[in-house]
């Protein structure tokens, strides 16, 4: 499998350099370029055609949220992962509404970051556990508003699939789920595929939201 082509976008040059060094040491990832603000990010993305953009949110000239929104329109095939310092509600939901496929904090481990980049390249949503909790909590607030009850699942989830779903909703990666449940990572991938299929969800975030609506979490 070829390395995932990544564009780093952050206004702190030292952080970009450190992150680039870290990722360059991993064969699964190829850093193809850097940008110091959202405007440069759009230019570099157009010229370099990365698979994934690691996007800071608070930057001069053009912030990461605005850049993400434009990038999703101009280059819809490019996946954006927000990589930032803050996980306040305003930033989280603004980034996701703009089209970011995931949201990670800068204290994320190197292994987790590489896994997230690979998942994003496959079109999978990736959320830090604290962020996943915010998304589910926000969706829970909708329970107070009148809405139709979702239809129950045609094929129910097995006990093991429910175990996987709960960890998935906490923002755990396949590797972390495998460790927690003492399963092979390939087995976890199969369970995740089954969970998404049974829930009619296109990604992990949507699966967590639908599971919450069905009182599965």
TrEMBL record:
Residues 150-215 form the HTH luxR-type domain. The keyword Transcription regulation applies. PANTHER family: TRANSCRIPTIONAL REGULATORY PROTEIN NARL-RELATED, TWO-COMPONENT RESPONSE REGULATOR. This is Two component transcriptional regulator, LuxR family. Residues 5-121 form the Response regulatory domain. InterPro entries: CheY-like_superfamily (IPR011006), NreC/VraR/RcsB-like_REC (IPR058245), Sig_transdc_resp-reg_C-effctor (IPR016032), Sig_transdc_resp-reg_receiver (IPR001789), Tscrpt_reg_LuxR_C (IPR000792), WalR-like (IPR039420). GO terms for biological process: phosphorelay signal transduction system; regulation of DNA-templated transcription. The modification 4-aspartylphosphate is found at residue 56. One of its GO terms (molecular function) is DNA binding. SMART domains: HTH_LUXR, REC. The keyword Transcription regulation applies. It holds the Pfam family Response_reg. Keywords: DNA-binding, Phosphoprotein, Transcription, Transcription regulation.
């Amino acid at each position: 499998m070829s390395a995932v082509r990544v564009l780093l976008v952050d206004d702190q040059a030292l952080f970009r350099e450190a992150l680039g060094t870290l990722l360059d040491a991993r064969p699964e990832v190829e850093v193809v370029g850097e940008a110091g603000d959202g405007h440069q990010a759009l230019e570099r993305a157009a010229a370099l055609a990365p698979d994934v953009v690691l996007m800071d949110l608070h930057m001069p000239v053009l912030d990461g949220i605005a850049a993400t929104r434009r990038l999703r329109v101009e280059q819809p095939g490019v996946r954006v992962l927000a990589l930032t310092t803050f996980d306040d509600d305003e930033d989280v939901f603004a980034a996701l509404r703009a089209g970011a496929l995931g949201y990670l904090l800068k204290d994320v481990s190197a292994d987790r970051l590489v896994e997230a980049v690979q998942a994003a390249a496959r079109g999978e949503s990736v959320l830090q556990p604290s962020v996943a909790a915010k998304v589910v909590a926000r969706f829970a607030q909708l329970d107070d508003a009148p809405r139709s009850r979702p239809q129950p699942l045609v094929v129910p989830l097995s006990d093991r699939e429910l175990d996987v779903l709960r960890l998935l909703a906490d923002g755990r990666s396949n590797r972390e789920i495998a460790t927690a449940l003492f399963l092979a990572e390939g087995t976890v991938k199969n369970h995740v595929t089954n969970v998404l299929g049974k829930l009619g969800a296109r990604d992990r975030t949507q699966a967590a939201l639908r599971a919450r609506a069905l009182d599965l979490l």
